[in-house]
Each structure stands twice: as C-alpha cells, then as structure tokens.
TrEMBL record:
Protein name in the entry: Putative UDP-rhamnose:rhamnosyltransferase 1
Family stated for the protein in its record: Belongs to the UDP-glycosyltransferase family.
Taxonomic superkingdom: Eukaryota
Pfam families: UDPGT
Gene3D superfamilies (alphabetical): Glycogen Phosphorylase B (3.40.50.2000)
InterPro entries in the record: UDP-glycosyltransf_plant, UDP_glucos_trans
Molecular function terms, GO-annotated: UDP-glucosyltransferase activity
Keyword check for Ion transport: no
Assigned keywords, A-Z: Glycosyltransferase, Transferase
Length: 387
C-alpha cells in the first residue's frame, strides 16, 4: 500500500498539467490526492471530496479530530483506545466502534506516517478542510441520521450521491459446452433450492491466514448449508489443493462448491438459489449484496469493514461472527452464525429486514435519478459562485 501511495502521488504533475489545460468547473477527488488542494487553488477550480465510505464510518473517525486545520501534530493524535468507544451524537447514540485489535491496526494504518511521507489522516484532513462540499456514497433512506451527524460535525454541505448500485445482470451468463468454470457454477446453482445457498467471498484485499481459511472451511462443513465459496489461492498455498483442509472438497461435495480464482459475483448474487452471504462487509460488497435482499453474515478484517459490520448489526441487517480477545474465530461460531442467519427461526427478522432493504439498495431510479440528479444539479448551479 505504501508503494501504491508513492506511485499515486506521482500523478500530481500530469493532473496539474491537465487541469491547467482544460480548466474544468470542478475537481472531484477522493481522500488520497492531497495535492489536488494546491492545484485547485492555483487554477481557481473548487474541490468536491467524494467519499466511498459510508457516513457512519466518516463521522466516527472525524469525531476524533480537529478538522478546523490539517492535523500535522502527531503528538496529539487520537489513541487506539479512543477508537474502541461508540459515539454520542446528541440526537442519537451510535453503537459502532472498533474492537481492541482492530483499533490498533486501524490507528497504525490511518494516523501514522507511511513511506509516502504523509499519513492517510493528514491526506483526508487536508482535502476535507479545502473542499467546497462532500459527496458521499450513501442515502438518507439507509443512514440519514449519520449523514446529518456528519454534516453537523464538519460544518459543510454533505451531498449523498445514492448508493451507486452496480447494474443487476439482465440474465444468467450464457452456458457453453466447453466445460468452463462458469458452466460448473451455474449448473450447480440451478440444482439448489431457492434462497438456500450461502455465497462466501472475501475479495482481494483481505489476506486470510491458513488458520482463518481452515476455520471458515470447517465452519461451512459444520453448518450443513449449501455454499458457494469464491476463494483466491492464498500466497501461503503451494497449490490449489493446499488452500483447503485435506479432504474438504470431497467431504462437502454434495453440499458445497469451491471456486478458486475469479467468479462472476454479480451474476451469482442474482441467482435465485442464493439467499445469504458470508463476507468481510466492505461497503461496495454490502451494496452489491443487499440490492438482492440477501441476509448478511459479516466477518470484518480491515479499514472500514469493522465499522460497516457494526452498522449493519445496529440496523438489524446482519449478524457478526464472534471473535475471541486474540481476534481469532472458530469453526463452531462460523457454523452457528450461518445457521442463525439462514435457517433458524430467530433469524427470520434478519431475513425479513434484508428483503425490505433490497427495495432501497436495489432502487436504481432512486439512486440514479434522484440522488445523482441532485448532485449534478448542485454542480451546475454552484460552480460560478465558487470560482
């Protein structure tokens, strides 16, 4: 990640050249491009900070900081312990916070200097201080109270852009006769009962240890639920066979399917046999999954994932896998949590809430026409007053 930030910062000169040549009406920028502030000032182009994080995450982290100035005094940084306490926002009290082990990792990654020479916190604060408004991948229907709390905290206009759900696939991927992995996936899904399958996927950023992968595998087996697991071969595995416990594929062949490598996730989530998802609770994956009304089982690891998980639990849309003090989790808790979400009577409220949430998360007209429309309206009608 440090190398990526160093490389990203090398974009400063070509983007400055581009802005100078084109003189756009706005620069819309994420938290990382801190150098866009100087470029905007030099050419008189206002900035909008676009956050790909939810409002709950943003207001939780921002509530720790003095945003009236860029924070460059590393002696007054928030402590890891301060990340473990929920916030009281006056109108409501939030329940979201980091666990102890999560707080230590997040504090180091966000607040401490890295090889790029500037911390993520300083990048974020510099952009936030200079921007004209904040656009956020969220909506009032899901977290209106957090959007309002964030606006009150930063004292700037906060414009929800909607959830920007990806287009749902219009039809299942065409099945050919070449025996490709996609054929196997959809042939298998077609044989399962409606809403019975758990889709398991932890993306590409979470690097799961051997113990973690094996506990998930054993937990899936113990749950006795049908599952489809999209698993990238870990770096510690010498071969595909080494990525899973010995004999796991054979023991679970009647119940589950493991796909090593890339899978067409949106088409899988849209298949009628899928009813739930075990995943890391990244914000993009939350949006992808809830637009189909699937029940969520969350096992967060890094960055905003723990806060997303707590938010979903707060909203009665997810159940989180229990962890021990040393941050480990066990197969029994994986199995217990999956069964609670998917089939247990006490999990019916979760399943019902997930189905209701699909009406918001999957409403493309709401997000595209209303929210994006409002954002475009703001950009068109405020540019002359900002320059």
């Amino acid at each position: 990640m440090d190398n990526f930030k160093i490389a990203y910062d090398l974009l400063q000169q070509p983007i400055k050249q581009f802005i100078g040549d084109q003189l756009p009406d706005w620069i819309i920028v994420d938290f990382s491009a801190h150098w866009a502030v100087e470029i905007g000032k030099e050419f008189g182009v206002p900035l909008v900070y676009f956050s790909v994080f939810c409002a709950a995450t943003c207001v939780f982290l921002t509530s720790l900081e003095n945003i009236s100035k860029a924070n460059t005094d590393h002696d007054v940084l928030p402590s890891p312990e301060s990340l473990t306490s929920p916030r009281d926002f006056g109108a409501f009290r939030s329940t979201i916070a980091y666990r102890k082990h999560e707080a230590v990792d997040m504090h180091a990654g966000f607040y401490e200097l890295n090889d790029s020479g500037i911390s993520d916190s300083d990048r974020h604060n510099k952009i936030l201080l200079a921007c004209q408004a904040v656009a956020m991948r969220s909506c009032n229907e899901f977290e209106g109270e957090y959007l309002e709390a964030y606006k009150n905290k930063i004292g700037k206009l906060v414009i929800p852009t909607g959830l920007l759900p990806p287009e749902q696939p219009s039809a299942k991927i065409e099945i050919s006769s070449d025996g490709s992995p996609n054929n196997v996936i959809f042939d298998w899904l077609d044989k399962q009962k409606p809403k019975s399958v758990v889709f398991v996927g932890f993306g590409s950023e979470c690097k799961l240890s051997k113990q973690q992968v094996f506990e998930i595998a054993h937990g899936l087996g113990l749950s006795e639920l049908p599952f489809l697991w999209a698993l990238r071969k870990p770096n510690w595995a010498d071969s595909d066979a080494d990525a899973l416990p010995p004999g796991f594929v054979e023991r679970t062949s009647e119940k589950g399917l493991v796909c090593l490598g890339w899978v067409p996730q949106m088409e899988i989530l849209g298949h009628p046999s899928v009813g739930g998802s075990l995943f890391h609770s990244g914000w993009g994956s939350v949006i992808e999954t809830l637009q189909f009304g699937h029940v969520l089982v969350v096992l967060p690891f890094i960055i905003d994932q723990p806060l997303n998980a707590r938010l979903l639990v707060e909203k009665d849309l997810a159940v989180e896998v229990k962890r021990r003090e040393d941050e480990s989790f066990c197969k029994d808790d994986i199995a217990k949590t999956l069964r609670h979400a998917m089939v247990a009577e006490e999990g019916e409220k979760l399943r019902s809430n997930a189905r209701k949430a699909a009406k918001v998360f999957g409403d493309h007209k709401l997000h595209q026409d209303h929210y994006i429309g409002e954002f475009v309206h703001y950009l068109k009608n405020n540019v002359t007053t900002c320059k």
